[in-house]
Structures are given as C-alpha cells and as structure tokens.
C-alpha cells in the first residue's frame, strides 16, 4: 500500500518537473486564449479577474480599490485594467518567488501597451488557469511560456484603445502613435490619455490575437532597462506580503507534526496533555492521504497563537507506527555506490557509436568517480498556508510555486469540487523548487475542515528540514577516451541514482536531457543503477543540472587535461561536434552549439583566459545548457596551505535571449552563483535510519556575508531569440568552474561535494 | 498585562512572559514585518531594535524586554538612517524574494546608527548574522555603502 | 653486590608501598574534614541520609524517585535519544569504550531479576548479579557510602519503570582492561566498601551535604582528578579535571580558580538551576547533572550541598581568575582579533546576535559570556564542546538553548571561534587547532542528547 503511494507521489512530481522543465520552442509559447481575452466590461470584470474574495481582509491594502463593484477601472482583459486617472493595473499571473516575475511580466505587458511605467500598479492575479493558462513558477519557464501571451495582452489592449481614438478622431488607426499611456495623432495634434479612452475601449470588440503586430526588439521602450522590484517599497517597509503574513479576523494558529521518518503513521499521542496546555484550542490526529505530495499522517495542534502552538508541539509525544517508514541511510548509499560503480550495467540507456572500440584504440583513457549529496531547499520563509473553510468554500492564501496545480489537489484532499476552492497567491519567501509541491497547502485544507475559524498553518524550521523533497544525491563513474588527434572520442557514464517505484528514477534523480544535448562524443554509452529510496526527492533549483553538471564538466576538464589541449579549445571542439543526436526527435529544443560557443568564448575572454597567475592561484571555467539558457561561468581564486579558498572573481555569461529587466537579471545571475557557491562549499543533508540529521541552519551552513564573494560579474549576450528564464541557468556551471579552478591552483581534483568534506573552506 | 513601547507607541499585551517578542509582534500586535525564519538566532530575519541595538526577537522573551524601547521594520522608516537605508535598498534593487530583507535593513540601520562610515569589515561584522538564501549580499553591501555616502 | 640489589629492592618496595599507601589515603573523600566519625547508627543528630523531611512520610517509591534523582542514575543509564534508564550510554575512556547497562526492570536485559542483596552488591561493591565485576565507570566507590535503605528505595523506584528490552552493548576495551577479574585488585585498593559515617565535629547540615555530594551525587567522579589506576585522588579533591572531553571545574574554595569568590546565592542558584548570573551555566555533562539530578533537590538539600562544598579546602588549579568586565561594544576594539580574523567572522555570523560583541547578552542572562568560567579557561575545552554540542536545557528559570554547531562547522572553524571567544571575553586566548577539536569531538561523542526531529 505505502509503496504504491510513494511511487504515485513520486510520479506526480516527476511529471511536474518534466513539464516545468520543457521549455517551448520559439514561437510556440502560450498565446492569448479566448477566455483570457473575453471582454470584461465594467464592474463584472472584478469577478473574473479576481475570483471572489469572501470577506478576506488578508491584505487590506491590496484588495482596496480593485474589488469595488462600482469601481471605475476598466478591464481591457484579464491582465490589464485602466483607471480614469490613467493608472494602469497589471495582473501578474505567476507567483513571485524572488525571481522578479511580477516586475518582468509587468514590463513585458507595459511595453506592448506603451504604458507609462511610472503609473503602472502591479497586482497578483488570482488563480484561474482557465483564464490565464499555466500559472506556475518553476524551471525558469514562466517567461518563455508567457512571452507571447503577455505581449498579446498588451498589444490587444492597445489596439482597443487605438480603435476608439481612431473612431473619435476619425483618422486611420495606423496614424496613431502610442507612448507613455497617451495616444497621439501627430498630423492633427490630437492626443488622449488611455484613462480617458478606457470606458469606450473596454466596449470594443476583442482583436484576434493573430492579427496583432508585436514589437520587434529595436522598438522596445521598457524591456531591457533596469527596474526596482514592484513590491520593493512594501518589502523594505515590512508591509504584509508573504503567505506567513496573512491575518484574518478570528484567526487561529496550527502546527502539524509528521513522523520524522517519512512514511510513519500516528498510533496515538498524548492528546489530553496537549489539549490542557496554555493557549491550545484543540489537537487531533490526521490520517492524511498517505501521499507525500498531499497529506501524510500527523498530529495537528490548534492554538491561539504561534508560540502556544510551537510550545505544545515541543511537548507532543507521538507513538509512531514505523512499519512502513523510511530506513534510508546516506552513509550506506554512499558506500554501496562506490562498490557498485565499477560494474557497468548490461543494458545501457544511451548507446551510440562503439565505445569499447574507441577505448581500445584511444590515445588516452581517463576514469573518475564523482559524488554529491542530498540537499534541502530551506527557503527562508517556512512552509505555511492560511485556510478558511466557510460557506462550503475553501478559501486559502498560499505561498506556492504551483497554485494552478495545487488547487485541484487541495480540492481532492478537502473532498470538494475544484470550483469550491479559492486560492489566493501570496508573495513567496523563496521557492528554489520546494514549493512546486503543495503539501503544506493540502495539510492546511485538511486542518481547516476541522476548525471553524480561519487557520494559519505554519511549519517550524525543523519541520522544513525534516519534510523536504530533497535534491537527490548522485554518483557517477566516468570513463572517457581521447583519440590520437586529442579529441574527445568516447564518453561512458555509469550513473548511480535512486528510484521510488523500482522502475524509473525518482523525481529529480534522472540524468537530465540538458546533459544529453551538451555532452557530445561520437561514441557514447550511459547506464544507470538505481537504489530504492523512501525519502521523497524533487526539484531543486535547476533540477538534475545543479549537480550533474558539476560531475560532467569537471570530468570534461579532466579529459581536456589528458588531451594535452587547452580546456576552452577542447570544450569548443566538443560542443561543435557533429554527432548523432540522442534526444528524442519529437522534442524541439533551443540548444544551439553556436550560442554555447558564444558564451564560452565570451567568458574566456572576459576572464582573461590564458593569463599567467601567481602560484597558488587558478582560473577555472565550465559551461552548461540549462533551462533553455546557454551559460558559461569562470572562477578565479587562490588556495592556501590550509585549503582556504580566496575567490578573486566570478564571471557569468548568459545567453537567455533578450533581457527583460536588467537589474533583476543581474540579481538572478549573482544570486544563483552565490547559491551555487554556498551549496558547493557546504550544503549536505545526512540521513540515518530514515531520519534527516540536519534540523536547522546551525547544521546547514548557508553562505554568510563575510564569506560571500565581493564581485560576481554577469554578462548577457542578447539576441532576437525569445527570452528564457533566469531563475536557474546561472547555477549549474559554477561548481565545476570552482573545482576546475581549484585544480588549476593546486593540482588537486575535486570529485566530491560539498567541498567542506574535503577540508576546503572559503577564506574571509 | 505587559506594556511595551513599540515604534514610539505604548502597546499593552496579554501574553505569557516567556513568549518571544517575535510572536508577540506578529500574532498579537499585527506587526508581521518582523519575520520568523529559524527560531534559534541563526538567520536574522526576526531582527528588531531594542534600546537601539539589533536583537533577535525570536530569542528575546517579552518578559525580558522591560522598559526598553522597541523599533520594528514598520517603524524604522521614521528614523533618519532607517529611511536612508530603505531608499538605498530600493535604488540598488536589493531584494529578491525579500523575506530576509526586513532583518537585513534592521541590522544595516543599527550599523549606520553606531558607525556612519562602515568599511567592508564593519559591514561583515554587523551583517554576518543575517542569512539571505537568495544571495543578495553583493547588493546589500553596495546599498549600505550608498546609504553611508548619503550621510557623509 | 647482592646487598646492593637487596637495598635497591627494599627501596623499591618501600617506595611502592608508600606510593600505594599514598594512593590508598587518597581514596577517602571526606577525610579532609578531620574530626571524628561514627557509624550512622551511633549518630544522634538529625537524619542526614534518606529523603528530606518533606518526603519523610511519602511511600517507598516516591522516596526512591527522589533518591534516584539525587544519585543521578539517569544521566549515565540513558543513551542519546534512547529510553530513560535503558542504558547504552558510551563512556569513551583512554583505554576503550564502556557502555552503561539497562537498569529498567526488564527480566532478560535489565535488572528485573535482581534480589535486594544482589542490587546492594552492585551498588556498594560493583558486583553484578552473575558475580562479574563492574567497571568503576559505575561510581560504586562513591555509592558504597549509600545506606542500604536508600539503595533499596532506589531499587523500588526503578522497579516501577516500564521494562525496556535493551541488551547491553559490548564494551570495547583493550587488553588488559578487558579483564574484569583484575578489578578485584582495584576494589581492594580503591573501594572502601563502607557506609556513610557522619562526622560528629560537623553540623548536621554539613553531614547531609556530604552524604548528598559523596554517597549520592558522586561529584568527585567528575570533579576530582584521578590517579594512574583511574581511581579518585582526593589529595586534589574537587580541584577539577577533564572527564569525557569536558572540563569539570575546580569547585574547591580557591579564590582564583575555584568557587571562593562565588556568593552563596550564586552557588545555590547554580546548584538548583544549573545557572548563576555572572558565572554562566552548565552545559554538557554538568548540564545533565543539573537537569536530571540537582534541579530536583529541595532547597534545604541544595543549601546543605552548598555548605559542604564551602568546607572543601581551597586547592589552586591552573585556571586564571575570571574576567568580569565586559568587552568593548565594537568588534574593532578589545583583544586583537585572530591573525586572519576567521574566528571573528564566524562569531559575527553565528554567535554575536545572542552573545553580543561585549559578551553581555542583550537577549538573556543565560547567554552572557562575561565572567563565565569556561570562557576564562585558556584550554577552551568547554567552549569548544559547547559550540560543538550546543545546550538544550529546561530549567525553572526558562529554557536555556544554544544551537549545536558541530555538524555545520569544520574543526578549524570551531577552533577559530573558541580561540576568539576565550581571547575576547576571557582571561587568555586559547590556541586550539582543528586537530584538538577533532579529538574533543571523539572524547565527547555522545554528549548531545538531542533526538533528531523530535
Ligand atoms: S528567526 Fe530569529 S534569527 Fe532566525
Ligand atoms: S532576498 Fe530571499 S532570502 Fe534574502
């Protein structure tokens, strides 16, 4: 029973990751649907745009002024409302998790609309995938998915405004120009603000999205400039924004305690003692659905405030039935993988050319074993959801990355129709892939059904460490061949990974397609061995790539050294090899050897590749194709006798198409590099007998200010390719660049993460 | 009943003395700008000023506050350095997810209050206790320097 | 020639006997007081054994519970995260590892089949029911002073616990220490095998304190240095020593290195809660002693214990006087940072928010470093151990908590921060290396009782 549920949970997640990872090829992104474009005149707009807010005062400031039934705002479509005073409200349909989407989406729409950015107000759209299409944030896909749709929304609204003006002025619409929310007919000198035209425009027929002419790159006025985050004024003044900030009248507070070993069930708990504690209102066991991605069994404590709930949780004693609980142990996995690495499985997954022959004829062969550990997401905002079960409706405020996916699952858990779930998307205090799963929202719904008041479920940080969907560890045994010409001739990889269902890789534990595109060898063979795993795994920033690229690109460097050729030259040669494709033919991807070449060359150039460095210093470079981005990263550092690493400089060169918000993109590039450095240096989750050993940040050393690099220089190669996301691609190539630099400085090869396990640390 | 002075106002709260100030602020006074991140003084998102010093409100019990004046992120903009820091934060586009930033701003403001012209080492010493999972450190450093430059 | 050899042999024998005698004299923990002692039955003062007056009429099990706390059986007989009293706690000794055993009334693996006589033999003489000798990790050379009645009350209490099936873990000792039979000799030398004899020259309160400290709490087992035979050497009674990777401090009346400058309030506060303002708090094994044992004592008993402690002759140890002035408010001032400022940066990130750059915590008195003995110990042993293992104690004055940094921080970094803390806030900076910290981790591998994900 439990086994199938584990497998089901895992399958759900795997599918989700696949989906959020598959970037649409150019020109095939979501377009404006009929419903989205449905003409929303006057007051009725509020209903569709905002869903229905039943007495929600969660964010009084945000609901004011947009939900008035007699509001004067005119909805042009589901994304845009225009007020008589020329204030333009734009709805961001996807979650803001720190990737800057709420700003970027606004800029994309406003640019096509030719809106005056200074009078644009950004709001979070409610969850209604029928209107908005996909509303998730994951895999750096929000931008590529929504690119056309958002531009059409802007262009469509502008066309409606122009049509009104053309009619009023009796001029041809082609002679009307738009700029900063004003339409002008130059010949007659007439002009009108959008605000003055909105009432009439809202009544105009909706243009056919295909008839809209979208701007070309040269015409962008807003796209590509630097922006302050649209929520920044609220962020810096501490106004309520995040899920955890939600407050409702009469609200109570909940904690939920699950078995520390995944899969354990509640037999009983000290209910009487808990209920008698100060501030505790109720305590009850929840059976849950047995699905990790929904509700696992546990004990809910309801209290009058968080502290009372947490105090009671401290005193909670649960008799757990551990018969189906995880007994996984990372030290065992690691030892076992090392043992099995040399036994290349009989049946390869990928097999092109003739690897054995290549090895036999090779000028040089190289073998190496790489490993990296489990990792937790632990965004700074702990998991939480506020839910209110009232009038047959489950109304909830969720800091999630996948509200559109979460909604039907919540409905299922609550045993109600999806129409009876109203989900409000809040700002999210960090996603990193953790919040692709809506388990905490499901728990809140299950608890809310048994509590008459609105209830805010908050996880403790310890809960967050113990019940993550971890980045799986991985173990790679490589063998490569260099031919007599110094070229990469064969690549063999035995990947030791995990399975939840005994058949395919656990979610996030498969070799990514990105690697399949980017490792090019005429003879190539890959096979995997899978260990059964009970601990749930999932998507962790740049899923798969975040660690696999470390192994692959470090080994690539080893091969280049064996070839006797320059690393960059060796890479460029490999990237541009014309070899049989491994990737299924039905998938269109944006991988381009020439864009890869572009970033590698520019990175080498900016880093001063080839320059002479003092003894003990080194420059390392690596590249990746990840989440549709082509990226190269370089690290320059020195290492002292105590293995203290002083980072001199980090460079990131990205080709992700045109940049929407330059400030935000630089922030992502710097942030992802910092995160990657932090993870490579120190982050590791140990599991013993099913128990996650790390419980809080004291045991999980996320990089702190004094150790953070002072300079990370991002460069962008912009192009007419459609834009792709920035949340992930600047992560994966950092670790191999770091390892390659350490080799350059010391001659010591890093084949294991985190580096602190090898005695390395960052210098102050 | 305890009486606290928060952002210049006197507030009465009816809570047990051992409740950390963090939860009094968030749950009983609706001041949710001060965040919960770890509960063990390791992340800094709960930083408030107590008698002018940056303090982790997850560790300070309300009973131990005494008569010391409290300033939270909601009130820091009314102080000269607080306003300067907030402005510098927006100009440098510091926030990513933003969750740590209230605490960062409280620590940065306390730093400038004590030391109007901090150098890198001063910034390290004052800011090391504030984690940012998103990795905004480079811009935090720049924003603090910009804010300091404005006071020079 | 023969004669010379004879003389040499004689000298050796005399010296050896003298040395043995010296060792032997060192075994009596209460002889320092002088005066005359009498058998308990002949003592006519107030009751100095058994439970305090408040509990005099309580039933046997209740009395046994109090005495079980007073004798602190639980701390050693509970493995980290394991069932209380079920044993399995590891003592890492220089010559191997000894595990405590299950003293729940389980018939197979615990003491469920022990008769009263067998139980007394174990407590007083270190002899197991099967006749085998216990290692003196079990402090029977202290418990031997316990009255039969008190020992049997403890047994009665233990027999009310839920039996736990927990087989003893195999000790790992090197030869010859693996030979239990050799303990017979040790016992002759070092276990007086006699019950508590009140000292008629001292007050009843002193005698009560002596009984609590020696027969029950066995303070000396950590605080008194040991001789070569690993027996307590009461020549330096309570002068402090290293036990299981932690330093048990000098608790004699020495003004510089002991408790001489502690006020009575400080002392009783520390004994009852494990914390005294200005002196710091108990962590590690002493934290356990405070939580599992001392905090259960009634105030009269705490005072009696304090009275007894006050009577211990001052014995100077190598510790400097504690610095009681706070460090400067700015990190730039005060004792110079370590050469590469690594300790300072780590302190800034993980420590300063609670301990402050002054060492006087703005958060809670529990976190104040100024004046704390451990911080003024230039070996930094307990500072490093506290950083590695953290503190997680609940006292009547509130929770005392510090995160454990052992898992997240390297040996080098822990050494750096311990050196920094002792230099900045204490009398003299330590010079621990990463290797030292690694050794400390080994010695105290079992101190943290935090169960994962509780
Ligand atoms: S919540 Fe207080 S420091 Fe993290
Ligand atoms: S901005 Fe996200 S944690 Fe700092």
From TrEMBL, chain A:
SMART domains: Ald_Xan_dh_C. One of its GO terms (molecular function) is oxidoreductase activity. It comes from the Bacteria. Coiled coil: none annotated. This is Xanthine dehydrogenase family protein molybdopterin-binding subunit.
UniProtKB/TrEMBL annotation, chain B:
Keywords: 2Fe-2S, Iron, Iron-sulfur, Metal-binding, Oxidoreductase. Pfam families: Fer2, Fer2_2. GO terms for molecular function: 2 iron, 2 sulfur cluster binding; metal ion binding; oxidoreductase activity. It comes from the Bacteria. InterPro entries: 2Fe-2S-bd, 2Fe-2S-bd_dom_sf, 2Fe-2S_ferredoxin-like_sf, 2Fe-2S_ferredoxin-type, 2Fe2S_fd_BS, Beta-grasp_dom_sf, Diverse_Oxidoreductases. The keyword Nucleotide-binding does not apply. This is (2Fe-2S)-binding protein. It comes from Mesorhizobium jarvisii.
Automatic annotation (TrEMBL), chain C:
Its cofactor is heme c. Binds 3 heme c groups covalently per subunit. It is found in: Cell membrane. Keywords: Cell membrane, Heme, Iron, Membrane, Metal-binding, Repeat, Signal. Coiled coil: none annotated. InterPro entries: Cyt_c-like_dom, Cyt_c-like_dom_sf, Cytochrome_c-type_DH, Membr-bd_ADH_cyt_c. GO terms for molecular function: electron transfer activity; heme binding; iron ion binding; oxidoreductase activity, acting on CH-OH group of donors. The keyword Lipid biosynthesis does not apply. Heme c 2 binds at residues 219, 222-223. Pfam families: Cytochrome_CBB3. GO terms for cellular component: plasma membrane. Heme c 1 binds at residues 73, 76-77. Heme c 3 binds at residues 351, 354-355. It comes from the Bacteria. Its main location: membrane. This is Cytochrome c. It comes from Mesorhizobium jarvisii. The lineage of its organism: Bacteria, Pseudomonadati, Pseudomonadota, Alphaproteobacteria, Hyphomicrobiales.
């Amino acid at each position: 029973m439990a086994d199938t549920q584990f497998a089901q949970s895992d399958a759900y997640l795997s599918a989700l990751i696949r989906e959020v990872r598959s970037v649409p090829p150019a020109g095939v992104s979501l377009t404006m649907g009929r419903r989205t474009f449905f003409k929303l005149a006057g007051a009725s707009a509020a209903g569709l745009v905002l869903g229905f807010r039943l007495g929600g005062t969660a964010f009084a400031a945000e609901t004011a002024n947009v939900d008035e039934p007699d509001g004067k705002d005119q909805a042009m479509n589901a994304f845009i409302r225009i007020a008589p005073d020329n204030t333009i409200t734009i709805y961001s349909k996807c979650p803001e998790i720190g990737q800057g989407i709420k700003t970027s989406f606004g800029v994309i729409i406003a640019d096509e609309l030719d809106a005056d950015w200074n009078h644009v107000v950004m709001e979070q759209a409610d969850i209604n995938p029928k209107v908005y299409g996909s509303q998730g944030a994951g895999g750096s896909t929000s931008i590529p998915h929504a690119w056309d749709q958002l531009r059409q929304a802007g262009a469509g609204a502008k066309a409606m405004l122009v049509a009104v003006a053309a009619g009023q002025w009796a001029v041809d619409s082609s002679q009307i120009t738009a700029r900063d929310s004003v339409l002008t007919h130059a010949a007659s000198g007439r002009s009108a603000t959008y605000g003055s035209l909105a009432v009439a425009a809202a009544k105009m027929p909706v243009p056919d999205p295909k008839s809209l002419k979208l701007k070309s790159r040269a015409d962008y006025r807003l796209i590509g400039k630097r922006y302050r985050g649209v929520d920044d004024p609220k962020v810096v003044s501490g106004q309520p924004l995040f899920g955890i900030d939600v407050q409702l009248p009469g609200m109570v507070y909940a904690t939920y305690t699950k078995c520390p070993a995944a899969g354990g069930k509640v037999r009983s708990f000290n209910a009487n003692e808990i209920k008698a504690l100060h501030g505790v209102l109720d305590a009850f066991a929840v059976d849950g659905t047995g699905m990790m991605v929904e509700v696992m069994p546990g004990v809910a404590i309801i209290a009058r405030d968080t502290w009372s709930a947490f105090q009671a949780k401290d005193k909670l004693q649960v008799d757990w039935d551990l018969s189906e609980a995880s007994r996984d142990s990372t030290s065992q996995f690691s030892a076992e993988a090392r043992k099995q690495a040399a036994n290349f499985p009989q049946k390869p997954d990928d097999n092109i050319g003739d690897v054995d022959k290549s090895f036999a004829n090779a000028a040089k062969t190289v073998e190496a074993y790489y490993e990296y550990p489990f990792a937790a997401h632990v965004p700074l905002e702990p998991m939480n959801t506020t839910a209110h079960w009232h009038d047959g409706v489950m109304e909830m405020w969720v800091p999630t990355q996948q509200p559109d996916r979460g909604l039907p699952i919540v409905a299922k858990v609550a045993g109600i129709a999806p129409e009876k779930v109203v989900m409000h998307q809040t700002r999210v205090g960090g996603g990193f892939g953790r919040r692709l799963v809506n388990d905490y929202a499901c728990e809140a719904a299950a608890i809310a059904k048994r509590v008459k008041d609105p209830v805010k479920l908050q996880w403790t940080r310890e809960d967050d460490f113990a019940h993550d969907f971890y980045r799986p560890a991985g173990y790679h045994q490589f063998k490569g061949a260099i031919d007599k010409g110094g070229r990469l001739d064969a690549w063999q990889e035995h990947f030791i990974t995990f399975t939840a269902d005994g058949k395919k890789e656990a979610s996030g534990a498969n070799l990514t397609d990105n690697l399949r595109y980017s490792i090019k060898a005429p003879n190539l063979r890959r096979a995997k061995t899978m260990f059964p795993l009970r601990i749930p795994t999932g998507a962790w920033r740049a899923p798969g790539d975040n660690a696999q690229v470390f192994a692959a690109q470090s080994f690539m460097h080893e091969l280049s050294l064996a070839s006797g050729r320059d690393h960059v030259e060796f890479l460029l040669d490999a990237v541009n090899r014309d070899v049989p494709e491994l990737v299924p033919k039905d998938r269109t991807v944006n991988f381009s050897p020439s864009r890869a070449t572009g970033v590698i060359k520019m990175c080498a150039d900016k880093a001063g590749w080839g320059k002479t460095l003092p003894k003990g210093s080194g420059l390392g470079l690596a590249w990746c194709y990840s989440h549709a981005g082509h990226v190269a990263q370089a690290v320059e550092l020195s290492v002292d006798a105590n293995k203290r690493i002083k980072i001199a400089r980090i460079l990131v060169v990205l080709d992700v198409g045109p940049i929407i918000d330059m400030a935000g993109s630089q922030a992502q590039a710097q942030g992802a590099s910092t995160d990657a450095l932090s993870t490579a240096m120190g982050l590791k989750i140990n599991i013993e007998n099913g128990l996650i050993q790390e419980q809080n940040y004291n045991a999980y050393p996320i990089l702190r200010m004094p150790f953070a690099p002072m300079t990370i220089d991002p460069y962008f190669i912009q192009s007419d390719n459609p834009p792709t996301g920035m949340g992930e691609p600047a992560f994966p190539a950092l670790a191999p660049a770091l390892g390659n630099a350490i080799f350059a400085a010391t001659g010591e090869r890093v084949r294991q993460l985190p580096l602190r396990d090898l005695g390395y640390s960052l210098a102050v | 009943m305890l009486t606290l002075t928060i952002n210049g106002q006197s507030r009465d709260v009816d809570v047990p003395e051992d409740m950390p100030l963090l939860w009094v602020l968030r749950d009983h006074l609706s001041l949710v700008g001060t965040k919960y991140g770890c509960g063990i003084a390791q992340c800094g998102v709960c930083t408030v000023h107590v008698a002018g010093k940056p303090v982790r409100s997850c560790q300070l019990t309300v009973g131990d506050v005494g008569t010391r004046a409290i300033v939270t992120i909601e009130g820091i903009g009314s102080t000269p350095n607080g306003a300067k820091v907030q402005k510098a934060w927006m100009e440098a586009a510091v926030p990513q997810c933003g969750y740590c930033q209230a605490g960062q701003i409280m620590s940065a403001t306390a730093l400038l209050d004590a030391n109007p012209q901090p150098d890198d080492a001063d910034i390290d010493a004052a800011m090391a206790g504030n984690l940012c999972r998103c990795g905004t450190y480079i811009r935090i450093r720049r924003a603090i320097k910009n804010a300091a430059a404005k006071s020079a | 020639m023969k004669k010379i050899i004879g003389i040499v042999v004689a000298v050796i024998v005399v010296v050896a006997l003298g040395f043995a005698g010296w060792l032997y004299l060192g075994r009596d923990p209460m002889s320092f007081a002088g005066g005359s002692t009498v058998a308990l039955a002949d003592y006519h003062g107030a009751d100095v054994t058994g439970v305090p007056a408040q509990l005099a009429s309580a039933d046997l099990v209740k009395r046994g519970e109090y005495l079980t706390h007073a004798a602190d059986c639980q701390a050693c007989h509970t493995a980290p995260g394991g069932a209380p009293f079920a044993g399995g706690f590891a003592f890492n000794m220089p010559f191997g590892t000894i595990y405590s055993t299950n003293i729940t009334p389980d018939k197979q693996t615990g003491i469920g089949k022990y008769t009263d006589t067998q139980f007394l033999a174990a407590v007083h003489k270190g002899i197991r029911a099967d006749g085998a000798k216990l290692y003196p990790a079990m402090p029977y050379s202290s418990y031997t002073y316990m009255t039969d009645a008190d020992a049997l009350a403890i047994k009665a209490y233990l027999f009310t616990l839920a039996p736990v099936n927990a087989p003893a873990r195999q000790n790992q000792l090197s030869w010859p220490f693996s030979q239990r039979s050799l303990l017979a000799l040790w016992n002759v030398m070092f276990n007086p095998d006699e019950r508590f004899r009140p000292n008629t020259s001292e007050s009843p309160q002193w005698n009560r304190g002596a009984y609590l400290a020696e027969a029950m709490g066995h303070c000396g087992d950590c605080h008194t240095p040991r001789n070569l035979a690993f027996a307590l050497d009461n020549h330096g009674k309570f002068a402090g020593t290293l036990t299981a990777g932690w330093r048990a401090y000098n608790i004699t009346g020495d003004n510089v290195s002991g408790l001489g400058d502690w006020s009575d309030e400080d002392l009783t506060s520390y004994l009852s809660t494990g914390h005294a303002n200005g002196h710091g708090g108990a962590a590690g094994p002493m934290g356990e002693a405070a939580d599992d044992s001392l905090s259960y004592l009634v105030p009269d008993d705490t005072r009696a214990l304090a009275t007894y402690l006050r009577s211990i002759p001052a014995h100077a140890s190598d510790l400097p006087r504690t610095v009681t002035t706070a460090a400067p408010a700015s990190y730039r001032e005060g004792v110079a940072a370590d050469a590469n400022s690594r300790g300072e940066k780590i302190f800034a990130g993980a420590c300063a928010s609670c301990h402050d750059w002054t060492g006087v915590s703005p958060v809670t008195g529990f976190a104040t470093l100024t004046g704390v003995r451990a911080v003024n110990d230039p070996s930094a042993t307990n500072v490093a151990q506290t950083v590695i293992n953290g503190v997680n104690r609940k006292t009547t004055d509130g929770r005392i908590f510090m995160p454990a940094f052992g898992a997240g921080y390297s040996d080098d970094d822990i050494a750096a921060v311990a050196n920094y803390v002792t230099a900045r806030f204490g009398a003299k900076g330590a010079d621990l290396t990463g290797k030292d910290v690694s050794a400390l981790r080994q010695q105290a591998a079992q101190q943290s009782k935090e169960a994962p994900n509780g």
